[in-house]
Amino acid sequence: MKNYYASILLVISLLVIWEIGTKIVNLGFILPAPTDIGRKLWELKGPLFADHLPATLLIILIGLFISIVFGVALAVWMSVSKTIERAFYPLIISSQMIPIIALAPIFVLWFGYSIWSKVVVTILITFFPITVNTYDGLRSTSKEYRDLLLTMGASKKDLFLKLQVPSSAPHFFSGLKVAVTLSVIGAAIGEWIGAQAGLGYFSRRMMTQFDGAGVFAPIVILSSVGILLFLLVVALEKIVLKWRRTE
Fold first, then answer.
1. 212-240 and 34-43 are packed helices; what angle lies between their axes, rounded to 10 degrees?
2. What pLDDT shows up at residue 5?
3. In terms of DSSP H, where are the helices of the chain?
4. Could you tell me the CA-to-CA distances from 198 to 118, 224, 230 in Å, in that order?
5. Structure confidence at residue 159 (pLDDT)
6. Mean per-residue pLDDT of the chain
7. Is the distance from CB of 77 to CB of 86 less than 8 angstroms?
């Protein structure tokens, strides 16, 4: 905890400056004070936490699950086949060149206001860091270790399970830490474009009512969700990669 004293102090200082600044300049309409946001969050805690937060979490979890399963599978496939790598890798890179905000309305046309239009947006954002980081990890194995295992009679299965998987695990978790934070953004974008429930939808609804504090209240929850997911991945990484600490 003591390692984060500087960060905590900086956050508190910024909040104080924000609070004082909005009171002096009277920017409550477009930039409500932190206390106003907290008050609105308390007033709306019922619908926000009971209705809209579960809807957003479901989108995030489904999108992340699909990205992890197919992202890791494609990374493994590309690592064992140059043909697949040449076919898919440029497409994966190109997918990040298109603004997601421009594609989101198209997904609404395809899938309507169902959960899947938001899930697809989340997948597009989270698929890239998981796939690319895992693929780089699979290719970063030590040639010396590989040659050593081959001289000891290791099979391709042994090389994959005992060398490539441990070597790629840190890269996978690095990509996952990026993906979990992006998944919150993806879910919010999808809900902002078209949804019937969710924190992004609620924020957009508050904007149409010109309620500045109401717009920021679900954003605070979204930020908290992203931080909690990141911390969960960090904790999981420490458990799974315990062998790195022992080294």
1. 90
2. 78
3. 5-25, 34-43, 45-47, 53-80, 82-95, 100-111, 115-139, 143-151, 156-159, 165-193, 199-208, 212-240, 242-246
4. 10, 15, 20
5. 72
6. 85
7. no
Domain 54-140+167-246 CATH superfamily:
MetI-like (1.10.3720.10)
SS (H, E, C) 111-161: HCCCHHHHHHHHHHHHHHHHHHHHHHHHHCCCHHHHHHHHHCCCCHHHHHH
Give the global pTM.
0.87
Note the pLDDT of residue 229. 94
Predicted confidence (pLDDT) per residue in 144-188, tens digit: 766 666 677 766 776 777 777 888 888 999 999 999 999 999 899
- Going by C-alpha positions, the residue among 112, 129, 114 that lies closest to residue 185 is 129
